[in-house]
Amino acid sequence: MAEVMMAAGEGESSHQGQESIRLSPGLGLISGVIIDQHFAERGRMGRLLGAVGQNPRLLGIGIDEDTALVIQGHEQAAVIGSGAVYIVDGRHVTHADTFESPDRAISLFGATVHVLSAGDRFSLADRVPSLGRTEDIESQLVEAR
Q1: What is the CATH number of the domain that holds 15?
Q2: Cα gap 45→60, rounded to integer Å
Q3: Dihedrals φ, ψ of 20, to 5°?
Q4: Could you list the residue range(s) of the whole structural domain that residue 52 is in?
Q5: Total tally of structural domains belonging to the chain
Q6: Residues 6+ apart with CB under 8 A from 15
Q7: Residues 36, 32: Cα–Cα separation, whole Å
Q8: Helix, strand or coil for residue 124?
Q9: Mind listing the pLDDT tens digit of every residue in the chain (145 residues)?
Q10: Of 44, 63, 47, the residue nearest 55 (C-alpha)
Q11: CA nearest 39: which of 2, 65, 10?
C-alpha cells in the first residue's frame, strides 16, 4: 500500500542492519510511511527500527494480525481490531548506524515509538497520537459505505 515496502528481512535477525532488511517500491497509495504486517506475532520491531534508521524521514508502522489502521484522508489514522499498531517516528534520530556492518547490531538514537490499540488515533500530518473510541471509528466506517 505504501510507496516504500518491506521486501525481506527476518524478525530474528532484523537488528543486524543493512543485510537483513530489504526495501522496495510499493503501490504508492500512501506516502511517507513504511508498513510492516504480522508485527508482534513475528517479532518485527527490530526490522521496523532498522528500516526507519535507514530512512528516518519515513514513519514506520507495524500492524499486528487481526488489526487494521484505517487511513482517513491521508492525514488521520485510526486503529481497529484486537491487536496493536506500533508507530516509529524517526524525525529526531541523531544517530543510526544501519549501514556500518552487517554483522553488528544496529544503533539507533532518538527514535520515538508509539503503541496504539483499538480506537486510538494518529495524525499522520503532525505525527501525534490521541485516544479514541472503537465505536466512533466503526460508525464512521458504516456511514462511509
Answers
A1: 3.40.50.880
A2: 10
A3: -95, -5
A4: 2-144
A5: 1
A6: 46, 49, 50, 105, 106
A7: 14
A8: coil
A9: 788 888 765 555 455 555 567 788 888 888 899 999 889 988 889 889 989 988 999 999 999 999 999 998 878 999 999 999 999 999 999 998 866 566 677 888 999 999 999 999 999 999 999 998 777 676 666 666 5
A10: 47
A11: 65
